[in-house]
């Protein structure tokens, strides 16, 4: 068994489309070697990098941030150390989602968010003076204004 994987093997094993793998390579997130035929061949360790990229995107990181994090990782480094700082980011995302869940019935259900008719969440349309749209969602705050 070769220690190098084809792009189709990496795609199959990682669940990431070959087009995405080529894109990641173009962005410098992963590297391949070229076989004599010019075909891409990836070291097995690329599977861990791809998993890292996918997870990072799922917690809301942009590819530029992913690249910056991967750049900190020397060859053979401790992956746990790199991802260890993500707890705060995940906690913030969970809090945001919980706020959204709590507001589903209250705000999205009526749809007004900053209109006069919402006497419960926005009596007297007091939030309107701060601009149009979902001010409670934008600020993340429910404080009285």
Q: Can you put this structure into words, describing what you see?
A:
By secondary structure, this protein is mainly α. The chain has 2 domains: 4-77, Multidrug-efflux Transporter Regulator, Chain: A, Domain 2 (Orthogonal Bundle), CATH 1.10.1660.10; 88-139, no CATH class. Helices cover 49% and strands 6% of the residues. It has a 3-stranded antiparallel sheet. The longest helix is centred in the last third of the chain and has 22 residues, at 87-108. It is elongated. The model has no long low-confidence stretch (mean pLDDT 76).
Number of helices: 7
Mean pLDDT: 76
How much of the polypeptide forms β-strand, as a percent range? 5-15%
Helicity range: 40-55%
Shape: elongated
CATH-defined topology of the largest domain: Multidrug-efflux Transporter Regulator, Chain: A, Domain 2
What is the β-strand count?
3
Order of helices and strands: EHHEEHHHHH
CATH class category of the largest domain? Mainly Alpha
- Given the helix and strand composition, which structural class is it? mainly alpha
Largest sheet: 3 strands, antiparallel
Point out poorly predicted stretches: none
Please tell me the total number of domains. 2
Cα-based radius of gyration, to the nearest Å = 23 Å
Q: Just name the CATH architecture of the largest domain.
A: Orthogonal Bundle
- Span from first to last CA? 66 Å
């Amino acid at each position: 068994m070769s220690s190098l994987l084809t792009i189709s093997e990496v795609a199959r094993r990682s669940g990431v489309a070959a087009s995405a793998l080529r894109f990641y390579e173009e962005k410098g997130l992963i590297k391949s070697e070229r076989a004599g035929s010019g075909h891409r061949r990836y070291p097995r360790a690329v599977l861990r990098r791809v998993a890292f990229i996918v997870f990072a995107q799922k917690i809301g990181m942009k590819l530029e941030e992913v690249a910056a994090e991967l750049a900190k990782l020397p060859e053979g480094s401790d992956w746990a150390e790199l991802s260890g700082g993500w707890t705060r980011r995940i906690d913030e995302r969970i809090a945001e989602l919980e706020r959204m869940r709590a507001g589903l019935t209250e705000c999205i259900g009526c749809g007004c968010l900053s209109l006069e008719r919402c006497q419960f969440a926005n009596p007297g349309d007091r939030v309107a003076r701060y601009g149009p749209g979902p001010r409670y969602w934008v600020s993340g705050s429910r404080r009285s204004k």
